[in-house]
User: Fold this.
Amino acid sequence: MVMILAFSNGEQHLASDTAQLESEEQGAEAFAQFYDSGESVRIALPLQLDVVEDSDGLVVAPESPGFAPKGAGGRLDDSRMWAYEIQPSDTLTGIFSKLGLPIQDLYQVLEADENVLALDNIKPGVELLADVENDKLNILELRFSPAHKVTYQRKQDAGFEFKETILPGTWKEVALVGEIGSSFANDAAAEGLDARDVYQITQLLKEKINFRRDIRKGDSFEVLLSRQYIDDEPTGETKIEAVRMLANRSPVSIFYYDGSYYDEKGRSLSKAFLRYPFSGNYRVSSNFNPNRHHPVTGLFRPHNGTDFSMRTGTPILASGDGVVSRVVDHKYAGLYVEIKHSERYTTRYLHLSKALVHKGQRVSRGQKVALSGASGRVTGPHLHYEFRIAGRPVDAIKAPIPITKQLEGKSRKEFDALLSQYMARLDAPRGKAGDDEMLISRRDSQADEKASTL
Assistant:
């Protein structure tokens, strides 16, 4: 059966890894640890659910307002399909119990999830599908958007493997122009920018513009924005390509290139990254290996980071400026911190003994954010460090990450050529978002889903 879970509160993250039953005998409630702005709340969830069949033989649950059989046409056997819209207090432990699944199935999924940590990123609006047969979970799938999903599939009795699918889709570009009447936030929204886009622009320009004091009535702004589509359906993903503003009669411009933003002279808006998130020299105990398989079970178990052997309590530093997006205690990954540096770059720090930051906190390059440790499933104290570009893990030691503040050589020539294109499109604005969209790139978005297995 398949169930679909949609969360309604965007501020809460599900931390399924800490959920646990009080006991199978008492088993009337499940508990989960939720993390919201760095604070945890313990929430109880009833486990029992009366399950009946409708006239077509599909399972329904009349006492649960979110349950409904999913229509035909899905990839899975329709007789095993569920649709379920859950509320913020629901937990994976509770859902597994409602379906009559053993807690061991959840632990096996969590074990596979150690390599992607997608379950810790479930937010309101994410869809979760499950294929269950004979009280055994066969497939668990998270659909973050039409372009991004993570699937956990049982491999006989050995456990689960995961596959992450990221579709490039089609990106359509629009150029917007507006004039300040009351505030940048209000006037930008009136021109078609959503709250997330407005927030990103204010964060990108905060070192150049004080949006409280520098903005005057009559100032102008121009924004080049791309939106992602899959089969003409918007995914909700956007990318700010360029911004040009007149603030207090002074011009300010920023432009996107190779994952970062620069001014018209090729100077980075943010500090460069540190290659290593610590001071001193530490031995690499396990290299990045996206194709690793378990030597006994044969299951796909990629090593998406680099392990550094170090004593417990070693200070761990933020690799670059950013915002802490997760602080989670995972059954297998241990205590870990994730930092979002931009729409393109993310870093993770696993198996910590102590986190020194909280979710939502802004951090600077070189700031101490944690202490190393041996939490989770490990054989000894070490740091597991991950660097991700556009959601995909890369080798943090060898990947071409930004480590300079000024573009030079070939990169500068490429940037200058792109800058000319940006300026030409900004000089020919095309109305509000959704109107007269300019198609600038068409990439594969077919239903066969050229999956990227990480």
About this structure: Confidence is low (pLDDT under 50) at residues 1-78, 431-454. The chain has three domains: 13-166, 170-270+405-442, 284-394.
